[in-house]
Amino acid sequence: MIYKELSARKTIALVAHDHKKDDLLRWVDKHRDLLKDHDLIATGTTGKLVEQSLNLPVQKLLSGPLGGDQQIGALIAESKIDVLIFFWDPMEAQPHDPDVKALLRVGIVWNIPMACDVATADFIMSSPFMQNTYKAELTDYDAYKNRKL
Q1: Which of 4, 49, 68, 76 could form a disulfide with 43 if both were Cys (CB 3.0 to 4.6 A apart)?
Q2: Topology classification of domain 2-145
Q3: Is residue 91 over pLDDT 90?
Q4: What residue stretches are annotated with the MGS-like domain (predicted)?
């Protein structure tokens, strides 16, 4: 079995579609005291809004439609993101929908906790694993990586 040990200080990626940014801002305000103990990364405008709301540093990437979702996906694949909070809008067509699906897929491939709604994000933040180390089980992809084409 392959494991990845997550420290008590997690790196949390924050993403929100335009119609979900207010939901995310209410959520980060509600969890301000917990979020200050973690490293925050966000896509473009979301990162600016969260940084202003929390008065905490946020590493800002590109806007989602300009590649920010893909940047976060790459960081997940490099084991540089531990948790993904992604409030996406199921009622609005997104021009970068393939990027959104790819981001969710890579989160599952690398077995990171992901929340796409407030309730699930609340459950993740209230977990004792958020304040302590956690040993995450990873799928062994060696056979896949070493296959002969």
Answers
A1: 68
A2: Rossmann fold (3.40.50)
A3: no
A4: 4-149
